[in-house]
Design a protein that fits this description.
about 850 residues, alpha+beta, Immunoglobulin-like, 6-stranded antiparallel β-sheet, elongated
Length: about 850
């Protein structure tokens, strides 16, 4: 009966399938061919056809590479692995590596086959098993087979040793606790002459050092041996087996340099042992080919990461400088990125390549251009500010729109930090606003207004420059806003022609009003710009004498504007003219000099390239006479609210509002004083203002020489892996001052970034926050952020504090509030 059954025809070969698929003219035609062949392969699998199983699985793998589903061949791969034929095993293991991973339980069925093949008499079968285990072995498989791998790592066969070393790397990644099993086998690995074994051995040692501090300390004794191997490589003659573009085994050299970098990090002795060989590699490596550049780049990274000599670091930076002249864009990009990382530690050495870096701003590649821009800003200092700003302003003129915002911000910050004169500062900011006004940050306008206000001697010059800048061009809205504000403030100086810095222009009052009215009706003007212009026109009613009636008319027209903001301003200004005309000149007088205050207390961070140190802001003594409101109330008046207080007591009080919007948010509606509210003060008694800054007279230099210790520390906050601890110090000379040092630690597996700690205390205390040591709280409690708080407690009341924590963790912005009431009595009594 069986003789009458027609056998299926032999399946086509893999080569014929590839040729057939390549003849397909459309995707649909190719898909039809694949589906037809898959059906034939399925039928063959069902027939348990052992003769052609290997050929069918090979074709299935090709289809898998083209992106078609091939999961139905997984069990056939296991059958091929169990076969005794080498050709079957080879395709079976290849299929297992491509079609299986540890997410499928099927892979566990391979464990016994792999174990048998690891003990096979043929080295090539053993090699297949090692490759497969090193590619897709799960943690369960690695635990079961680690002993076999370790045995092969000790064999004398170099073919198996190199594969066993790479398999051991995979085992360690999957099951780190098995690392010590391979430690005895690593002793003789570096004595091997075979470059393949050497290469894989260095990879294995690198993996072990990166995963275990104990292993790192253990393997530091191998530094002289690694140095000797590297020296032999660079000094050896031509070897056709290992030569790549005239360099002996560059792959092994790069791996050894990477391992030396790990071993030399934060270790003086190891770094000292490798200084000479690094200098030899840096000077003897040929740079005409990309192979040499790869070795040099790895050498530079190693020099920068270990505790190397200063001369060696300069040599490394000069190599990066040569990279900047290379025609290959990738090499130029790598050089700029590396220089950006080292500019803070080796600033002067990088400065020598400033002209080459600036030339990279003209590169056509946008990635290189961005890195060059970031590095150029990092190189700006007080000595080169004029030249660098000239280049960066030229770049701002010609760069693509996506660069303009970052470039403008960088110029603002650099000009604020290093401006040689106020006139230069104002000219530079105005040039940015003229060139890229629509790309600047939101705070550019108020910052420039503050700068102009504080430069009293430059008022006439500035208002004249701004007037000329906006004549007929309202496209740059931030520039128009600043110009409108200045014309409103200093319009009388513009009309009088008192400018001494440049030739004054003759402008009439009507011409000034024409400009502001054209801003109001321009289609390019935003609602905010129109608000600036209307307010400027109103201010000019007290600066100008002949055009007051025209101003009244303009203001009354906008009383019926469809823009609600503009309408409200106009109605209020109209009321000033009609009901409160006697107060108008006082209300619209010139703005006083503005003081720049920081949110966390009187400490301004002054950062010079590579160094950050706190500098106390200039403070003024409090006025001797009584004042009806504090300095903070002046600011609240401007904002349109005079009834904000940081503490809302149970009974109404008439305490003045305190400064610092963030403290208001922190304190919310909780009365932290713990005492009953005071009775309302009589209306006739003026209240004396607080000094302009908290802890006036206290230096912001770190801590005291005469401190009282022994105060127990407390845990102020512990939640979601973040822990905040307070430690305390008291000054013997000024016992009213408590210095609190906070330490923030993170026990989770990911870093917490952009960490900000804020604090608020009741009104009877005064608080100063100094700058933190970092903004990143490292994971696994591997480091802490420290920050110092100084609290002045003249009345020796019980200390209470509200804290606010903000940070980013696992891609999410986190924020939390907490109240700290468990301060030890020694910290405040």
């Amino acid at each position: 009966m069986s003789s009458h059954i027609q056998r299926m025809p032999a399946p086509i070969r893999l080569r014929e399938l590839i040729r057939t698929i390549r003849t397909a003219r459309t995707q649909a035609e190719e898909r039809e061919m694949i589906q037809k062949e898959c059906a034939a392969i399925r039928s063959s699998f069902r027939e348990e056809d052992n003769t052609y199983r290997c050929r069918n699985v090979a074709k299935l793998l090709y289809m898998h590479m083209l992106g078609y589903p091939a999961h139905f061949g997984q069990l056939e791969c296991l059958k091929l692995i169990a076969s005794q034929k080498f050709t079957d095993k080879r395709i079976g293991y290849l299929g297992a590596m491509l079609l299986l991973d540890e997410r499928q339980d099927v892979h566990l069925l391979m464990t016994n086959c792999i174990k048998n093949d690891l003990n096979h008499s043929t080295q090539y079968v053993q090699g297949l098993a090692l490759c497969t285990l090193g590619c897709m072995g799960s943690s369960e498989m690695c635990r079961d087979l680690a002993g076999e791998v370790e045995k092969l790592l000790k064999t004398s066969n170099s073919y198996l040793r190199k594969k066993a070393a790479l398999c051991a790397v995979h085992v360690i990644r999957k099951v780190p606790e098995l690392m010590e099993m391979f430690l005895p086998a690593t002793k003789n690995l570096l004595n091997e002459k075979n470059h393949g074994v050497l290469h894989t051995s260095v990879v294995l040692l690198t993996e072990m050092c990166e995963r275990s501090p104990d292993m790192l300390a253990h393997f530091r004794k191998l530094v002289p041996q690694l140095v000797r191997i590297l020296k032999n490589l660079i000094m050896s003659g031509y070897s056709p087996e290992h030569d790549v573009s005239g360099i002996s085994d560059p792959f092994l050299q790069v791996r050894i340099l990477r391992l030396l970098r790990i071993l030399g990090r934060n270790d003086d002795d190891s770094s000292e042992a490798m200084n000479d060989i690094l200098a030899q590699v840096a000077t003897n490596t040929e740079t005409s080919k990309n192979v040499g550049n790869a070795i040099l780049y790895e050498t530079v990274l190693t020099i920068m990461d270990i505790k190397s000599e200063s001369g060696l670091r300069v040599l490394a930076i000069n190599i990066l400088g040569r990279f900047l002249l290379n025609n290959d864009k990738n090499i130029r990009y790598v050089a700029l990125t590396s220089l950006l990382k080292t500019v803070q530690t080796d600033h002067n050495a990088v400065q020598r390549h400033r002209s080459t870096i600036v030339d990279c701003l003209k590169d056509l590649d946008v990635s290189i251009k961005r890195r060059a821009m970031e590095l150029s800003f990092a190189l700006v200092n007080g000595n080169n500010i004029r030249g660098m700003m000239k280049e960066l302003l030229y770049f701002l003129d010609s760069c693509e729109p996506e660069f303009k915002a970052d470039c403008a911000s960088g110029i603002f910050l650099a000009a604020e930090k290093y401006a040689p004169s106020k006139r230069w500062h104002i000219d530079t900011i105005m040039r940015v606003l003229t060139t890229a006004g629509s790309y600047v940050r939101d705070d550019a306008v108020p910052n420039l207004i503050q700068l102009i206000t504080n430069s009293v001697e430059m008022h006439a010059y500035t208002v004249q420059r701004l007037y000329k800048a906006i004549l007929g061009d309202y496209s740059q809205q931030p520039l128009v806003q600043v110009a409108a504000w200045c014309i409103g403030e200093y319009g009388d100086l513009l009309v009088s022609g008192q400018c001494e810095e440049e030739e004054p222009i003759q402008v009439t009052e009507d011409e000034v009003l024409d400009i502001l009215e054209s801003v109001l009706i321009s289609n390019m003007s935003t609602s905010v710009t129109r608000g600036y212009a209307l307010t400027a026109i109103m201010k000019l009613s007290t600066r100008f004498t002949c055009t007051v009636n025209r101003i009244k008319k303009v203001v009354s027209i906008y009383g019926s504007s469809i823009d609600v903001e503009l309408q409200q301003r106009a109605v209020e200004y109209n009321a000033l003219f009609k009901k409160y005309d006697h107060m108008r000149s006082a209300l619209l007088e010139r703005m006083p000099v503005m003081e720049k205050v920081t949110t966390n207390g009187p400490t301004e961070i002054v950062q010079t390239n590579g160094e950050t140190e706190p500098a106390p802001l200039e403070t003024k003594p409090p006025p001797s006479g009584p004042q009806p409101t504090s300095q903070a109330n002046d600011l609240l008046d401007l904002l349109g609210g005079n009834d904000i207080t940081p503490v809302i007591p149970t009974a109404p009080t008439s305490k003045p509002a305190s400064a610092g919007g963030e403290l208001l948010d922190l304190l919310g509606d909780i009365n932290l004083t713990g005492a009953p509210a005071a009775a309302p003060a009589p209306a006739s008694v003026p209240q004396v203002a607080q000094p302009p800054f908290l802890l006036d007279g206290l230096s912001s230099q770190p801590l005291f020489n005469d401190i009282t210790t022994g105060i127990p520390s407390i845990t102020a906050y512990s939640k979601n892996g973040l822990k905040i601890e307070f430690t305390f110090e008291r000054s013997n000379t000024n016992p009213s001052v408590t210095v609190i040092t906070i330490q923030a630690s993170n026990s989770t597996e990911l870093d917490m970034t952009d960490f900000v700690f804020q604090a608020a205390v009741p009104k009877t205390f005064q608080l100063q926050l100094l700058s933190p040591s970092s903004s990143v709280v490292p994971a696994f409690n591997t480091g802490t952020i420290t920050q110092v708080i100084k609290v002045l407690n003249p009345q020796k009341q019980q200390l209470r504090m509200r804290i606010k924590l903000t940070y980013n963790h696992k891609g999410s912005a986190m924020q939390d509030l907490a109240e700290v009431n468990n301060f030890p009595p020694q910290s405040w009594q």
